[in-house]
Amino acid sequence: MVTFNGDYFSMQEIAEIIGGEWVIPPVDASLPIKHYAVYQGELSTSDQANLFFAMDGPTWVRGTGNAGMYAVNPPDSHKFVHKFANQLRMIVVQRLIKDVNVPQLKVANSYEAMKQIFALINAAQPSRNIGITGTVGKSTMKALLTGLLKLVAPTHSTPTNHNSRTSARITVMNSVGTTYNVLEIALGAFWYGKKPKQVGIMQDLVLDLGIITQVGIGQRGYDEHAMAEFKTRLAYGLKPDRPLLVNGDIKNLAEVKQLAQRYTSRVITYGMQAGCDYIGQVTDGYLQVRHQQQLLAAIDVRHFDAGLISNAIGAISAMTILQGRFDAAWQDPLHQLCQQANPRKVHTFMVNGHQVTVLDDTHNAEVLSMQNFIDFAQAYQVSSQTQKVFVMGRVINLGDKTRAVHLQLIEKLMQSHFDQLYTFGPEIGSVAAAFKTANFGGHFDQLDALSRTLIQAIRTDTVIFIKGSGRNSGITRLAPTLVRKALYYSSGAGNFAMTQVAPSSGAYTQNGVGRLLVILACLEQLSQGKLHLTDRVTITQDLARDHSQHKVDLTIGDQYTLFTLLNLAIVVPAPDVIVNLAEFVYGDQQTAKANLVNRAQALGLSAHAFVNVTGRPMRQPQQTYLSDLEKIGAAFTEISDDYFELLSLQRAQLAPTGPIYQKYSRLLKTGQVFGSLFFGVAETNGLLFLYDGRQKQALVFLNATKIADVDQQVSAVIKA
Fold first, then answer.
1. pLDDT for residue 70
2. Angle, CA 132 vertex, CA 127 and CA 138 arms, to 5°
């Protein structure tokens, strides 16, 4: 029987612990496993002594206990192992992973196998555990405390934001050989188990110190009272007489302390309030922390917000508790750690002679962090000639409190003194109408539209503050887009342009015409009898490493009719469809690109209108002018009517039971145009085809804010 003796398990010992069958046996089973991972982000990059637990979706859902949005289409990690196989010494699998030449031990349930290994290691308590939880601030506190503890002893911590019950186990398994193990623990790790011990992962963990950074409205819309009940369960895992360190600035502190006393009588507080055990005070940009009137540390906190300052006080307090002191030599490293932990990214650039500074704080967003950032932005010092602009995104996972919380944040912004306010992204749009102040510039769902508005509104030096959750939202790309496209928008090159309505020789889109030329080639060869709609197209490219949300996820080797793929290409900007059509028409990618370059030249297109087959913005700049689209539109009008009518498609499907893709524009539905082809994000560029009873005519446009605006413009042209 294998037992844990403080050293690493070998591959052979792991096989004895969890059983199973070697489907690819190791050459040397005595080699040690030093690191374990369920998620790629948990792998160690320092060596190749990693073991990865691969599991199918249902196994992952059952093991992790995930529900709701996290349990929809759960991933099968067997499919991804090839991406990091070179980092692995061993894989625990539920089926053989072909083409991955790494020792593979097949078991019935990989998650349960992980728990078996965890149980052996955890029982021996290989290091001193510090557990950190809180509505906000737990990742920053983890980073600060881990960095400080590394100054005195070997220390391990939860990687990035892997803070689930699963990653808590993995973090313990990977702490072998260290003195301290700092665990970040999220809400979901606390709410399972059977009463009266419904304490989640704390049934298994033993802590030398627990830290609660903040309590407020959090995931699933739990209010501060419910969050206090959950978060204080951390104290269940404390060793006898070991303390729970709590942020004394928590609004419902009395309730938190009372709930914590279910498990411990030692609650120690830190914060700015006079009654805290560890008290912080900021004077002229410097933080001083005292305990029992004794000065422990003083650090520079200029440009830090209230949340980061609070975490600095907590880290000083925790080090003092664990080490019995806070050395003066740790002050500079703490200041550096705070600077590194500060998630805010700062960008500076010029627009028409004016300096623009963007402070991007979109890594994460909870209610309290949103409020802290609004306060920070208001207090941010600028000259009287500098305007301040605030862009607010959403807070996610608020459940039935989504509307109320966002209205609360809007109320706070309306009481602020920013020159301009904007909202961006999902969920915010439904409540943005609550803004009643003249400085509200509107709600935006499209990144380019908001970027253009922000840049073109700059008339003086400007500071733009951006805050919101980046999950399933493009708000994290707003700051980089502003930097990249500042000259494009400020010069007028990104302005809206349209045949007959707003003609322009200087406006261009940064999307290329590759997709348009591939569709044109298909229609021309159909008209010439060189291709047939019933031709079978074998998929040769799946663009597996392409992260485009517009892919239709083709599978190599599958076959579809040309009719099916061409319909999709006309309706949706799917890069995998366009690449496969190009290869079908021309033979291979290299030949396709050469032929499309020649076609662009024959049409007389500008030098950078065609750069790549899909036409998507890439590293090599693309510029498509109105005149380019007019020339391409004229070529489309030469297509025979039998095939030209394909451009009238409004929707398409890859398979009868698959998703339905459709165009946003309503012009086809209303019969105002009889053909359309769009490119770029949300149909912001395109060709619309009219017919006057004698001939086809192309009406083209660039850089529309939204397609509904184009629909109105076209309606006006037709009526005129």
1. 67
2. 135
